[in-house]
Specification:
This protein has 125 residues and is mainly α. It has one domain. Helices cover 79% and strands 0% of the residues. The longest helix is centred in the N-terminal third of the chain and has 27 residues.
Length: 125
Amino acid sequence: MLVEYFTDIFLKELETGYPDCYDRLNEAMKQREQQVLAFYEEGIRKSIFHDINGKLLIIQDELLRSMFNVKYLMTNQLTVQQILYDYYQLKKIQLFKPEKLSAIDDEIMMPKIEHMAQKITKNLF
């Protein structure tokens, strides 16, 4: 959801118009990144995740921003829900070791993906 709401335009306007708020947001985003990296590292340590550089995984999530573009969606005949579901599948396969994949219940994620898709679609159109 952060990818959708914190657009480059929003961040630039926040930085120029409200530098103190921008600094606080930037610090919070750094803390969030550290928490995500710690989560990945714990999964690697517990032999649940593949040993992949967490920073690359975080940067990879930024790709979603370019996918949630009306022109891109229409040109490629995609829906937001398709992108979110396929991205979830890619991340799952990329992160989890093969022997751990069977423990994942995709049904738990479906309502979350649908909810995110509705919110993002509402903001796009």
